Amino acid sequence: MKIGVLGGGQLARMIALAGIPLDCSFVVLDPSDTACAAAAATQIKGDYDDPQALAELARQVDVVTYEFENVPQASARLLAQSVPVYPAADVLHVAQDRLNEKNLFTQLGIETPPYAPVNSLSELERAAATIGLPAVLKTRTQGYDGKGQAVIRSQDQLAQAWTAIGEVPAILEGFIRFEREVSMVAVRNLAGEIRYYPLSENHHDAGILRIARAQPGDAMTEQAQSYTEKLLSHFNYVGVIAVEFFQRGDQLLANEFAPRVHNSGHWTMEGAECSQFENHVRAVADLPLGSTEALSCAAMVNIIGDLPSAADVLAVEHAHAHFYGKSARPGRKVAHVGIRAPSVAAREAAIEQTLTLAGAHF
Amino acid sequence: MKIGVLGGGQLARMIALAGIPLDCSFVVLDPSDTACAAAAATQIKGDYDDPQALAELARQVDVVTYEFENVPQASARLLAQSVPVYPAADVLHVAQDRLNEKNLFTQLGIETPPYAPVNSLSELERAAATIGLPAVLKTRTQGYDGKGQAVIRSQDQLAQAWTAIGEVPAILEGFIRFEREVSMVAVRNLAGEIRYYPLSENHHDAGILRIARAQPGDAMTEQAQSYTEKLLSHFNYVGVIAVEFFQRGDQLLANEFAPRVHNSGHWTMEGAECSQFENHVRAVADLPLGSTEALSCAAMVNIIGDLPSAADVLAVEHAHAHFYGKSARPGRKVAHVGIRAPSVAAREAAIEQTLTLAGAHF
């Protein structure tokens, strides 16, 4: 089976590495000269909206998927005329726009933080009055890793925030005092079967995910699964999805979802029977889904900015290195460390050592 | 780190898939149009004794290793003039010749079945008288998977056996009535540190390995480690080695060793903390070695000859598919199934189901 991937970054790279042993081969479409997925895939170099490149991709593969949700919807629809695209293009319409996303959550009965659309400074003032402060102003599109966001703590910051995000269509979200952030990574196949990984508990650093810990048996599992199932069924979804939640008391509030393999699920590479990458391939290639059960005590630490040496990383007991073949750059995810340890204490020690390493290079 | 591999078959492919996440890239030298390692490596197409191809390989990489022991020794020595070659070329001199191999075992105090060199029919007759029958006549070089061998059960089969193996330099080995065959896969790094995987218990079918089961805590572990350590230290070895033993009573008799990753260690991909492929990369790239501890109950089943579908393989509970990207051909290893199960019973059930699948296509 030949699988096309829109995007040739580390997610496509890890999808290909997981899929090659399943008798799949990969073609990535990416405009970059240094697409790191090319280590395990053929690259078509082209823009995501280049009709010729898209036609070439469709010609070469049996099915198309993507590694990021900002794929042009028109491109996904064009491809879908000649080859199956999973998840379907309809998902992008929602996933690319925070307002559509929150509206769908609400429509499906999935709790969210309070929110309101903002298209002007005066709308922002009205929204702030309704929702209350502090609150977060977020662009409807293109935001990731904390970009395109402004926290508003007092009335006199409203105009400044509106300017800061570029005066573009946005939503204002109530600043939730949550106890923690968790995410549910799940996979659904063509037949409608769904498998859920254990919840991930996520910790951020300057808006970027830093640590994800697998939490098998977490008390919030059932609520997270129920919400995720609503989304998957709504879209008749095929592939891996990740849904991020804030937890307040015994309630989960959906923050956003990603229609793809997700950084908070990287721990599944060593920490689950079958990784999110392999299960994504299995789903889009219409192969039986693999077990999502956790193995021992798993976690993931992101390496951001500068690169520690592989020797330093591998000297940490229970650490598994995943370099992305990317050059160092401030704020850039260049690698992650998967941890699979026999006890929580051993896992925490490995996380601590990895953070020290990563911090020294941050 | 750029790693060159002599040979571009499934072993090189699995080495590359394991090494890419460690920030390594791979160049394989292989004469074939369909080298299956090319899915995860750059291929230099050329013969193993082509000086230009070897020079190009040496120019492109930091270190060279190999996936099969029949690499021309002259090529390994030529490469070693400009780039480190691990395991060193001296190992090939022994590993390529059954007589040298058995003589080294004897020199190091490693027990072997009785054996004698055979260079003529009259030598064969004398050897048979000394060793006794039944016995096995094996070519000194080039034999693998049961090829280049003839079993001799009575005096009147001597001439026929000598003809059958092509009247080439050979050794006669006493036909040992062993209880089982086990192999020790181990890894040694540049600093001399050695890590041993749990023993594998191996079952063959028509001379080709069919099933390998991980046997952590096996009673023969200490003896196998001690023998393997002698070999590794003798060669000042760097990389993964596999040593095959026959067990008779509480005694191990060394059959042969392979200076490379080995089919009987494939179960380590899911079944050990760090696989033999990753540990081989770590050793030749001078990175810290990974843990060789077993995870739950592991085994490997070879898929030989015809190809079952990925869907059929993945429908087996606890099965992990490793297709090699090779076309089907009688007697050819085209894939293997890794099994990691929570109990011996579950492992055996998975082996049984996989054999049924594989048998249906054999």
Automatic annotation (TrEMBL), chains A, B:
Q: What is its EC number?
A: 6.3.4.18
Pfam families, per database record? ATP-grasp, PurK_C, RS_preATP-grasp-like
User: Where on the tree of life does the source sit, at the highest rank?
Assistant: Bacteria
Reaction equations catalysed: 5-amino-1-(5-phospho-beta-D-ribosyl)imidazole + hydrogencarbonate + ATP = 5-carboxyamino-1-(5-phospho-D-ribosyl)imidazole + ADP + phosphate + 2 H(+)
InterPro entries registered for this protein in UniProt: ATP-grasp, ATP-grasp_carboxylate-amine, ATP_grasp_subdomain_1, PreATP-grasp_dom_sf, PurK, PurK_C, PurT/PurK_preATP-grasp, Rudment_hybrid_motif
GO annotation, biological process: 'de novo' IMP biosynthetic process
Binding-site residues for ATP, renumbered to this chain: 98, 138, 143-149, 173-176, 181, 204, 255-256
What PROSITE patterns does the entry give? ATP_GRASP
Keywords recorded for this protein, A-Z: ATP-binding, Ligase, Nucleotide-binding, Purine biosynthesis
Extract one GO cellular component term from the record. Answer: cytosol
The GO terms this record gives for MF are: 5-(carboxyamino)imidazole ribonucleotide synthase activity; ATP binding; metal ion binding; phosphoribosylaminoimidazole carboxylase activity
Location of the ATP-grasp domain: 102-285
The annotated pathway is:
Purine metabolism; IMP biosynthesis via de novo pathway; 5-amino-1-(5-phospho-D-ribosyl)imidazole-4-carboxylate from 5-amino-1-(5-phospho-D-ribosyl)imidazole (N5-CAIR route): step 1/2
The entry's function note states: Catalyzes the ATP-dependent conversion of 5-aminoimidazole ribonucleotide (AIR) and HCO(3)- to N5-carboxyaminoimidazole ribonucleotide (N5-CAIR).
Q: Report the family membership.
A: Belongs to the PurK/PurT family.
Q: Which NCBIfam families match?
A: PRK06019.1-2, PRK06019.1-5, purK
Assembly and oligomerization: Homodimer.
> What is this protein's name?
N5-carboxyaminoimidazole ribonucleotide synthase
Q: Which organism is it from?
A: Simiduia aestuariiviva
